Amino acid sequence: MLTLDAYQVEAAKTAIYPKQFSIMYPALGISAEAGEVANKVKKIYRDKDGRIDEASRLAIADEVGDVLWYLACLSSDLGIDLSQVAQRNLDKLYSRLERGVLGGSGDNR
User: Fold this and answer.
1) Is 10 contained in some domain?
2) What is the band of 105 on the pLDDT scale with cuts at 50, 70, 90?
3) Angle at 33 between CA 101 and CA 84, to 5 degrees
């Protein structure tokens, strides 16, 4: 099974963007690819009455993979392992869950 950190190492081998644009390039790429995910989902509701067929499911998964690639590259540019990013996120979410503030808004809940 591929771990997040192993994926990050392999993704870095295909990161050919200029290093003077590190951090900025993958951050913008995340936004662009997330928009493509949203667009594919939107079209399912527009064109297919919200029914996700196998081809649509796989097309969305491919776009999610592109988001993951940019997340891996951004994490590398920041000098942090993707598994650390994932663990920090889970720690934050479980802390909010335990304190009863999982819902709501704001970073410092």
Assistant:
1) yes
2) confident
3) 50
pLDDT range class, residue 103, cuts 50, 70, 90: confident
Total number of domains in the chain: 1
Within-domain flag for 91: no
Domain-located, residue 11? yes
Residue 76 domain-assigned (yes or no): yes
* CA atoms of 38 and 35, how far apart (whole Å): 5
* pTM for this predicted structure: 0.91
Residue 72 structural domain: 4-81
- In tens, the pLDDT along 24-82 reads 999 999 999 999 999 999 999 999 999 999 999 999 999 999 999 999 999 999 999 99
CATH number of the domain where residue 18 is located = 1.10.287
